[in-house]
């Protein structure tokens, strides 16, 4: 039986999971599952079709029949397509973020999404980012990463990211929004956010993105999931792999 390699990257909002995922995806030319985009797309469907979370929960199986979500790299950009519509920007809106967090608490919805997420597992490999990738969706993954950073640091980064996109937001308001989403992620009854027992925990607070990437790739090499090849790094213009450290 062909075993397709998987790297899972879990962690709280704004910790840099998707940036790490995209960088590894580009380097290894593996497929990407951005599971948060699935919850966000469902939130978008609710908003546009004017249905509430309860109605979504009741009709989730039916909705998923025609739910065609894809992640594509085009002109160096990571694009989320729902059917053939580019929804990359619209699903980042605050109201979508907020609603997706409530949708993610619903057991019927999470259960209905189990197979949908596993269907992204295709050759040559998959990098899956979310909250329960290592614990629930791909428990057999050989390489599991749990990224962490303080709420303050994540708020700072998100504020900067929004600023680059031309949005000015109040730090305190953003801090409280992320805090609320964290609470829902950590405390929900089904699939709460937590590191898998066999995950490598990387605290990204005081190290650069390059170090986070290096630590992840070094770990994947130690687990024999990828072959040590320094040419691998040329695409991103970064140096050789350094020693990772557990935190
Ligand atoms: O990672 P994100 O911010 O795009 O996720 C959007 C919401 O979906 C967030 O509130 C957490 C939730 N989520 C989840 O519960 N499980 C996942 N595997 C991914 C995201």
Automatic annotation (TrEMBL):
GO BP field: nucleobase-containing small molecule interconversion; pyrimidine nucleotide metabolic process
Domain Cytidylate kinase: 7-221
GO MF assignments: ATP binding; CMP kinase activity; dCMP kinase activity
Keyword Transit peptide assigned: no
This enzyme's EC code(s): 2.7.4.25
Keyword ATP-binding: yes
Compartments, as annotated in UniProt: Cytoplasm
Keywords: ATP-binding, Cytoplasm, Kinase, Nucleotide-binding, Transferase
Binding site residues for ATP: 11-19
Broad class of enzyme this protein falls into: transferase
GO cellular component, as recorded: cytosol
Catalytic activity annotation: dCMP + ATP = dCDP + ADP; CMP + ATP = CDP + ADP
Entry-linked PANTHER family: CYTIDYLATE KINASE, CYTIDYLATE KINASE/PANTOATE-BETA-ALANINE LIGASE
Family: Belongs to the cytidylate kinase family. Type 1 subfamily.
HAMAP family linked to this entry: Cytidyl_kinase_type1
Protein name: Cytidylate kinase
Lineage: Bacteria, Pseudomonadati, Pseudomonadota, Gammaproteobacteria, Enterobacterales
